[in-house]
Amino acid sequence: MALPCRRCLLLIGALSIFSLDCVTEGQKNSTLIFIKQNTIRNCSCSADIRDCDYSLANLMCSCKTILPFAVERTSYSGHLTIWFTDSSVLGRLLNFTLVQDLKLSLCSSNTLPTTYLAICGLKRLRISTEAKNPFPEQSLLIHSTRDSDSQVLPTSLHTGWQTCTYVSFLDVALFNRNSSLKSYSIENIASIAHDFPDFSYLKAFPVPNNKSYVVTFIY
Fold first, then answer.
1. Number of domains in the chain
2. Where does the UniProt annotation place the signal sequence (predicted)?
3. What is the pLDDT of residues 34-43, one digit of tens each?
């Protein structure tokens, strides 16, 4: 009877290793960026962190400090959460950035000015204003996976805008209001800079013309 028992133990051990590998492969870390006292922390988290709990984020996530002037344009294929207290650094983090799943959490009671962020390829947006207004988190589905950009996002800014056909303009002042999150889209835009001349920063980051863009305004 000893031999079958050994076989059982070997089988159980093999199944345990296989199960652990499956769980490990299934876990995908999310990116958390928070701004506090002119310091930017970029974190990789394996679990959701309660909004604006800086101590817990530093404890549970793998974080590194980034100087504001050293922020580089990048892309996020997974979930990105940003905690912020004012809108001054948001433009550096999000303007002309490829991000599909975004959550913005206001961690102060500050009143924010009307400032538009230009985000490429945004599919879902969530906002939290718990620090300012005790309202539930809001969520907005902008584009589905089927009709949005490819799951594989390019890493360079130039290549990103060449392949990006969905551009979202987000009004940061929406955090001052108690109304529901809303959006509307305009299709078949050939030149974003020409059709929306009030967005002066489009001149600093030129968007290629002669494409059929879908422009969404979130407010």
1. 1
2. 1-26
3. 988 778 999 9
Helices (DSSP H) in the chain: which residue ranges? 2-26, 54-60, 90-94, 157-163, 192-195, 201-204
DSSP 119-146: EES--EEEEE-TTTS----EEEE-S-TT
**If you search the block for the tokens 């309660």, which residue do you land on?**
50
Intra-chain end-to-end CA distance of the chain, in Å? 71
Structural domain boundaries enclosing 175: 29-218
- With 0-12 / 13-18 / 19 or more C-beta atoms within 10 angstroms meaning exposed / middle / buried, residue 131 is middle
What is the distance between the alpha carbons of residues 217 and 111, in angstroms, rounded to a whole number? Answer: 20
Which of 88, 92, 86, 91 is closest to 69 using CA atoms?
A: 92
CA 50 from chain center: how many Å?
A: 16
User: pLDDT (tens digit, 9 = 90+) per residue, 50-77?
Assistant: 999 999 999 999 999 988 777 777 889 8
How many residues make up the chain in this entry?
Answer: 219
Neighbouring-strand partners of residue 63: 43
The answer to whether residue 83 is domain-embedded is yes
pTM for the model stands at 0.78
Q: What is the CA radius of gyration of the chain?
A: 21
